[in-house]
Write a structure and sequence with these properties.
CATH topology: Ribosomal Protein S5, domain 2
Number of strands: 9
Oligomer: single chain
Radius of gyration: 18 Å
Helix content: 25-40%
Strand content: 25-35%
Order of helices and strands: EEEHEHHEHEEHEEH
CATH superfamily: GHMP Kinase, N-terminal domain
Length: about 240
């Protein structure tokens, strides 16, 4: 794989500077400010004593995890209208919320959240590409912090997490497979993928498309290899901040 440098000085297989700053939202049970380069997302987790109506009606045991995602008006160069001003959630917002929720539930034993819903809120402070992948990676950290606190307080009996989860973007930019695309690269990429994986190396979800382009088996293999490398590094950072 080429290690040619990109316009921001990174190598093709290099993540942007990554950090997790805990305790950003004091009233949440667990929270973290997640930064992937200039993309910054507040991720917060709060436990509520309720479950969705369909679980009550169908007498499904356990609890639930749900997610909300939003881009704050000042997160982009041009002010982004709030969804409430438009009277509805846009399709992108709904898609990302569902992706975050699926990603979290993939690594949780919901029966260990009896009667509870763990609510994950992801609010984008600054957008420079990869907001959904940063949200997933930060959501896990916030949720794990919340769970650890709830166990210490005697609210939960045991940890519901079976594994960690993280996500990263990969793509083909000017014919070069690259890891962790910023906005400039994401906008002009001919192929764009979001990779969600567990800490143990299992795939949770792949979202990929050619942007008026196609890609080969060989290019797909290179993108997945980049994604796995990035997830490994993100998982290490998650583990370090969680102690």
């Amino acid at each position: 794989m080429s290690l040619e440098k990109r316009h921001d000085g990174r190598l093709a297989d290099q993540l942007r500077p990554l950090s997790f700053e805990p305790g950003i939202a004091p009233h949440a049970t667990g929270s973290v400010l997640t930064s992937f380069g200039n993309t910054r997302v507040i991720c917060a987790a709060t436990l509520e004593k309720r479950v969705p109506g369909w679980m009550r009606e169908q007498q499904v045991e356990g609890g639930w995890i749900t997610a909300e995602y939003s881009m704050l008006p000042y997160s982009t160069h041009d002010r982004k209208r709030r969804d409430i001003d438009k009277g509805r959630l846009d399709g992108r917002t709904v898609e990302i919320q569902r992706l975050i929720g699926r990603s979290m539930r993939a690594v949780v034993d919901l029966k260990k959240l009896p009667g509870y819903t763990l609510c994950i809120d992801c609010d984008v402070l600054q957008a420079d590409g990869g907001t959904r992948t940063a949200s997933i990676s930060g959501a896990y950290v916030a949720a794990k912090m919340a769970v650890d606190r709830l166990i210490a307080d005697g609210v939960l009996a045991e940890c519901p997490f079976r594994d960690s989860v993280a996500a990263v973007s990969v793509g083909i930019f000017h014919e070069l497979p690259v890891l962790d695309l910023n906005y400039h690269e994401d906008r002009d990429a001919s192929v764009d993928f979001n990779v969600v994986m567990t800490g143990s190396g299992q795939f949770v979800e792949l979202q990929g498309t050619g942007e008026e382009a196609t890609f080969t088996d060989e290019e797909l293999a290179k993108l997945l290899a980049l994604g796995k490398k990035g997830i490994t590094e993100i998982t290490s950072a998650q583990t370090e901040i969680l102690g």
